Structures are given as structure tokens and as C-alpha cells.
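User: Could you go from structure to sequence for me? I need the amino acid at each position, not a summary. C-alpha cells:
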């Protein structure tokens, strides 16, 4: 790299700085210019340098369908560009040109968003498919299929790998099995079973461990438990964490922001206090949001999507919390359309 001229007449350090500043949406165009630029953008050091210099961008991905009364919703991926305060849709998965699989899960790994499982929109059969959209290349590819067909499972990414756990099988039996997917090698491995069945659980990464929160068993439909199970990725072992979450409440709103856990409970944003093992209120929700849809972190706050009012209009807000934001506050975000349905899964690309 040191012996080539990335940009004519510019010193290498200035040329590199220019390329490191290019927006996420333009990275795919860089790779088409020449082999040197393609090699640079594809290298792990490219993202590391963007992060170190503060050029990293946050783009929130939500799974949204436009309002279409009387018909099965056709979902797509809406992308909120925090830097430019704009929205756009990702191109559809080639295998599903008319909408994403229903109830699929999404998780971000580097400059990629991974869509796992869900139901076939035509037959409603449970899918094991994995699709990966690479923002740097602006294209979809197929990943190795999940070993186990499961619905409403927990999934989260950690150290470039994705863990899926719990959910239920095609007979509505809650699962305690778990698997791990390496995006680079495109390979799945089985993990040890959790101690309990956990349908409709939530996975988060916290304090160096992956935690599967709450869920319910086959015999206790809808009765969300208070416990969680933490996975040590090195030892590949689970340990039970008692009283991690309020019993009887779905855990879908939990989100990690700047190393801290936040969630929505009783009309408030709450923060998890590890020392007391309690969730403490931080800020009341805006009156415009009566029904929660999804949440995902941004660089300076948490993006929250919900519904309110008789017309069930869509409302999107940003909660500014944590360091540098005192007192906590709300900011309205321009929505990508004013109606439609939103799935309770979201993620954030950080590149």
C-alpha cells in the first residue's frame, strides 16, 4: 500500500484519510474504482481506523411494512442514517422479492446485517435460511442454514459470531437448545443446551458475556420468567442468573447502549444497575408512544419506535441518555412513513 498512489498527487496519509471519511452508503462504489481501493475497504484495518479516528457511522435497521389493509404485510428493511437524518430501504432479498420472511430476526455484524429464520410469507412454513447484506459491497448473499428450525428465538452477535437460542419448534414446543454461527467461515456449531426452555426470549451482550433473558416454557405459555442465562463464549458454558428481569414482562425492549442496559417498563426508560440487580427509571416515555415496537442504539442515544393514538400512527423518537446528556431528554425523529407495522427486532450497523 505504501508504494502505490491511492489518489493522484496526494501523499499516502492524506489519501487514506480521505477514503476513511467516505460515508457508509458510498463504500460499495469505492470498491469499483480500482483494486487498491477495493483491498483497502475490504481490510479489517479500514473499519478499525474509522473507529479510532471517530469516522464511524451508525445506521439503524428496522423491519417495517407499509399499511396494506386486508393483506399480509410485506416487510422490508428501513435504514435510518443518523448522520444525515434520512431514511431509505435496502433492496429486497433476491429469494424474497415481495417481502422479508415474517417474524425473521436481524443482527448486525460489522458492516453486515444478517437476517435469520422467520416464516415463508406464502406458506407460513418455518425457515432456516440465513441472508447477509454487506453494506461495503451493496449486495445480498446466502449464508449456511440454521441447523434447527425455530421461531421467536433470541439472537445476538459477539466477536464476529452470532448466537441463536431458545424460541419454539414447529409444534409450538419451547426450546432450550442453542447454536453459534461464524459469519466469516459460514459455519454453524451446536452449543450446550440452556438449563430451561425459553420461548420469546431476548439475547444481549453485556460485560463480556452473552445473556439470554426471560422467555417462557411450553407448559407456561406467556408467563415470562425472571431469570436469565449467561454464556461464556470461551468455556461454552451457561450459568443461570436469577431475578435478572421483572417476571411477567416480555424482554423485547432491552437494548445495550454505551456498555449499559436500558429497557422500557411501565411507561419509562429504565436502566439496569448491576450493583443492586435492579432496573431504575430514567425518563418517562413521550405521550405519543403508547405501544412499543422496537429499539436500537445510535451514537448519542437510543432510537425507539412505537405507536400511539386511535389511528395507530408510527412515532419515532431518540432518547438521549448517559454520559454527556444531562438531564436525559427526547428528540423527535422524522419517520419513514406515518403508518404500517414494525417487527420487534432491530439492529444498528456501526462502520
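Assistant: Here is the amino acid at each position, in order:
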Amino acid at each position: 500500500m505504501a508504494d502505490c498512489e491511492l489518489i493522484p498527487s496526494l501523499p499516502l496519509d492524506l489519501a487514506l484519510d480521505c477514503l476513511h471519511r467516505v460515508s457508509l452508503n458510498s463504500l460499495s462504489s469505492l470498491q469499483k474504482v480500482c483494486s487498491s481501493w477495493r483491498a483497502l475497504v475490504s481490510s479489517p484495518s479500514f473499519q478499525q481506523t474509522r473507529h479510532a479516528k471517530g469516522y464511524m457511522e451508525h445506521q439503524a435497521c428496522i423491519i417495517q411494512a407499509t399499511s396494506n389493509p386486508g393483506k399480509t404485510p410485506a416487510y422490508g428493511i428501513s435504514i435510518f442514517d443518523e448522520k444525515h437524518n434520512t431514511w431509505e430501504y435496502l433492496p429486497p432479498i433476491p429469494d424474497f422479492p415481495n417481502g422479508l420472511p415474517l417474524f425473521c430476526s436481524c443482527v448486525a455484524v460489522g458492516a453486515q446485517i444478517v437476517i435469520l429464520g422467520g416464516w415463508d410469507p406464502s406458506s407460513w412454513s418455518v425457515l432456516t435460511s440465513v441472508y447477509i447484506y454487506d453494506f461495503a459491497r451493496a449486495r445480498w448473499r446466502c449464508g449456511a442454514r440454521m441447523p434447527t428450525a425455530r421461531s421467536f428465538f433470541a439472537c445476538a452477535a459477539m466477536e464476529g459470531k452470532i448466537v441463536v437460542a431458545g424460541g419454539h419448534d414447529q409444534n409450538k414446543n419451547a426450546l432450550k437448545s442453542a447454536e453459534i454461527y461464524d459469519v466469516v467461515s459460514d459455519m454453524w456449531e451446536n452449543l450446550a443446551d440452556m438449563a430451561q426452555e425459553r420461548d420469546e426470549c431476548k439475547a444481549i451482550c453485556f460485560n463480556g458475556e452473552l445473556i439470554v433473558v426471560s422467555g417462557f416454557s411450553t407448559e407456561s405459555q406467556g408467563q415470562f420468567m425472571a431469570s436469565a442465562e449467561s454464556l461464556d463464549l470461551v468455556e461454552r458454558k451457561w450459568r443461570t442468573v436469577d431475578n435478572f428481569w421483572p417476571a411477567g414482562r416480555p424482554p423485547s425492549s432491552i437494548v445495550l447502549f454505551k456498555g449499559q442496559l436500558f429497557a422500557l417498563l411501565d411507561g419509562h426508560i429504565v436502566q439496569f444497575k448491576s450493583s443492586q440487580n435492579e432496573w431504575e427509571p430514567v425518563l418517562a416515555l413521550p405521550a405519543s408512544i403508547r405501544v412499543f415496537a422496537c429499539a436500537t442504539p445510535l451514537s448519542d442515544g437510543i432510537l425507539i419506535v412505537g405507536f400511539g393514538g386511535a389511528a395507530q400512527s408510527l412515532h419515532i423518537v431518540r432518547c438521549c441518555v448517559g454520559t454527556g446528556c444531562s438531564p436525559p431528554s427526547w428528540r423527535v425523529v422524522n419517520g419513514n412513513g406515518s403508518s404500517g407495522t414494525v417487527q420487534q427486532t432491530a439492529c444498528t450497523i456501526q462502520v
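One structural detail worth keeping in mind: The radius of gyration is 21 Å.
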